[in-house]
Design a protein that fits this description.
Helix content: under 10%
Order of helices and strands: EHEEEEEEEE
Shape: globular
Radius of gyration: 15 Å
Length: 127
């Protein structure tokens, strides 16, 4: 399974640490997938193509957690979302990271919500 940080984001983190370059994302956007999105975040995209903005609290202990719900209304098509990708733009942009969504079927026209606290990114810390 190819979930986690994208090469793009990993390189930006490393450049910030090793080369004193700054990096930030003004607003992250979430896209739904019905299977593993792969290493570039484009495989198995859901019928619902709209990316929704997400909000995260401050990282602690190597963990970043969403602090608000992310909602799609009047969703296109009927599928089961099983993965998500995060991007730095509502359209096009750079793939940042991916993860698993608890399998959740939806029907065309439904509202689909990933509740606050359910999007979690963690980095392995030295122990």
């Amino acid at each position: 399974m190819a979930t986690g940080l994208s090469a793009y984001l990993a390189n930006k983190y490393l450049d910030a640490v090793g080369n004193a370059t700054s990096f930030s994302v003004s607003l992250p956007y979430i896209k739904l997938h019905v299977g593993d999105p792969g290493t570039v975040g484009t495989a198995n995209a859901a019928i619902e193509t709209t990316r929704q903005s997400a909000s995260f609290g401050s990282a602690a202990g190597g963990i970043l957690t969403s602090d608000a719900s992310t909602t799609w209304t009047n969703i296109a098509g009927s599928q089961t979302a099983t993965f998500f990708t995060t991007w730095d733009s509502a359209t096009a942009g750079n793939f940042l990271f991916s993860g698993v969504v608890d399998a959740n079927p939806y029907t065309a026209g439904d509202t689909f919500t990933i509740t606050s606290g359910s999007l979690v990114v963690n980095l392995t810390l030295a122990s």
